[in-house]
Amino acid sequence: MTIDLRVTWLGRVNFADALALQEEVVARKRTDSDAADELLLLEHEPVYTIGRTPDKSSLLGAAHLPHPLFAINRGGQATYHGPGQLMGYPIIDLRRCGQDLHRYLRWLEQTLIEFLAHYEILARQREGLTGVWVHDRKIASIGVGVRHWITMHGFALNVGGDLAPFAHIVPCGISDVAMTSIEKVTGGPLAVVDVARQFEKLVREKIHNLLGVIEKRRRSLSDETGL
Questions:
Q1: N-to-C CA span, the chain
Q2: Distances 75 to 2, 50, 142, 187 between C-alpha atoms, Å
Q3: Is 7 in contact with 39 (CB distance < 8 Å)?
Q4: What is the predicted pLDDT for the residue at 209?
Q5: Domains contained in the chain, CATH given
Q6: Strands (E), 73-128
Q7: Per-residue pLDDT of the chain (227 residues; tens, 9 = 90+)
Q8: β-strand partners of 143
């Protein structure tokens, strides 16, 4: 079994338009089970988002925010997106991948960790927290939504750009968290489009890791039944 992954670079897109595009792809995949899985890669105009939670304390009141705010159907607290971030929105049918959301989240983290290694950055996961870290600084945030086992939203990887807008919120609801970026760690300038091209190469290899659960179950069933 293989995953047909369609990867698209969208350039800089405002959040509302990107959200509408995700909704369109999800709806298409719900009606056509054979539709390809997709990964949308892009940058956003400055925007804040928060997930489906009654606890809005991470917004610090919200009225002071210098950029628009969207409440959306993902998990997690407030975060910031803007120029210099690589946004990745995988729209993947998890029914093909074991219907395991935890596994999917860990796959996203591990893929980003391996990707950052290409820039000689030693990144890691932190127990009990979602995202990717360099020492005690967060370099990538993850927040996903799932409808009928089809994913949307995804990750924000800080490539460069201005990180000051994070100071207006409690990023991801984690007190005293410090953000960093590939440029801050490596000291060199990077274009988000170039980083996106490199990420596409890796994700095309790593997407097949999501099939592991299905393949193992099939092998186990064959062993048990003699098929």
A1: 17
A2: 28, 8, 9, 32
A3: yes
A4: 83
A5: 5-225 (3.30.930.10)
A6: 79-81, 85-91, 124-126
A7: 456 799 999 999 999 999 999 999 999 999 998 899 999 999 999 999 998 888 889 999 888 999 999 999 898 899 999 999 999 999 999 988 888 999 999 999 999 999 999 999 999 999 999 999 999 999 999 999 999 999 999 999 999 999 999 999 999 988 889 999 999 999 999 999 999 999 999 999 999 888 654 444 444 333 433 33
A8: 154
- Residue carrying structure tokens 């100071």: 167
Paired strand residues for 66: none
Of 41, 47, 172, 179, the catalytic one is 172
Distance, CA of 49 to CA of 78 (rounded, Å): 6
Catalytic site residue 97? no
- CA-closest candidate to residue 49, choices 141, 131, 112, 137: 141
Report the alpha-carbon distance of residue 49 to residue 31 in Å, rounded: 28
Task: Write b or e for each residue in 88-114: b if 16 or more Cβ atoms lie within 10 A of its Cβ, otherwise e.
Answer: bbbbbbbebbbeeeebbbebbbebbbe
1: helix, strand or coil? coil
- Most distant CA pair in the chain, distance: 65
User: What gap in Å lies between CA 153 and CA 25, rounded to an integer?
Assistant: 12
What is the residue type of 183? E
